[in-house]
Amino acid sequence: MMSDATVSEAGSPVVAILTMDDPARGFRGNRNNFIDLIEAGKQAGLTIYVTTVQNLKLHASRIIGYSYNGVTKSWERRWFPLPQVVYNRIPEREDEWIPEVRQKIEECLAHPNVRLFNQSFFSKWLLFKWLRSSRKTRRFVPLTRKYDPAMKLLPLMRKYPFLYLKPEKGKAGKGIMRISRQTGNRGYQLDAQEKNAKTVYRYPTLRQLKERLNAMIGNQEYIVQQGIRLASYKSRPFDLRVLVQKNSRGVWTVTGIGARLAGELSITTHVPRGGSIENPRRLLTSHFSAERAANILRRARRSALIIARQIERASKAELGELSLDLGVDRQARIWFFEANAKPMKFDEPDIRRKSLARLMQYCKYLTGKKHGSLRQDKPKSG
Known about the structure:
The chain is α+β, with helices and mostly antiparallel strands. The protein folds into 3 domains: 14-117, 3-Layer(aba) Sandwich (Rossmann fold), CATH 3.40.50; 124-140 and 230-367, ATP-grasp fold, B domain (D-amino Acid Aminotransferase, Chain A, domain 1, 2-Layer Sandwich), CATH 3.30.470.20; 144-226, no CATH class. Helix content is 29%, strand content 29%. The radius of gyration is 22 Å and the shape is globular.
């Protein structure tokens, strides 16, 4: 049963979390995340509910949505007002390719009284292209090429210690491979990421390795990227995860920095692939010194803000949050590896708490703005 009454706090801004329909459960997505968002909204004076592409009818005055009842520990299907802000949490890249989904996003972007932010996942190739196009950000970008089955890999393999191959539209480290020359010119090695471990292939010739690569890649779009020798802890490389979000004034800020340590049998630092969550200052101090670690973290914060501004500028999309993967090499140089337009929950409690508060601030900011009137976050000099 669904109540015929429309739910909202009188005068409170209304935010809809947009996701996909599910025939059995009503909607898809990370429900624990949605519960946190709804509860944070209540504390901030916002009405927040979950709705789906099918239920978000922008010509209507009220929308079918879902709220969470903390007493009964259950989701309730109810009527809600048309949202002023739509927080895009469509869960999978493949969902965004569905024509009905693309059309709904476009309708939201065109609606005079609705503001939608973070409209889609990013392509890795476009991210690197955008960052290479700016003098301020190109220094963070490893050499990156589109993979072609006929491309010559040997010049790159002679120049760099190893190469990474990454699916353009992958996430959480899925499908990443690493290729390298074996010591003493005894052939070539391919490491393929498999959940929490890796499969190792060795070939006497580059031609044989390319045959294996092409078979594994098939018709998927991949990029080839310069390998970076990262700073390490107990012989395991680590990188930084930086959450950047806009605040109550629509200005990019760093919410927090975490660290991810590669698993013993993993070629990436992603937690779903065997990586672990660590304290960034502790890892950096173990490799450098306390003073240099503090300096690296300050530079990582500044770098993350410069990168976020450039991604937003180049994408021409309205963005409210990004998580960035930044590497620190053995000489303390900072590198950009990835940006996620739909960040997963940070497991660090202090970052999680701040991230929810900042999302609420930004949603409130959006409700007071009309199309074309949003602040352009100007970069600071230097």
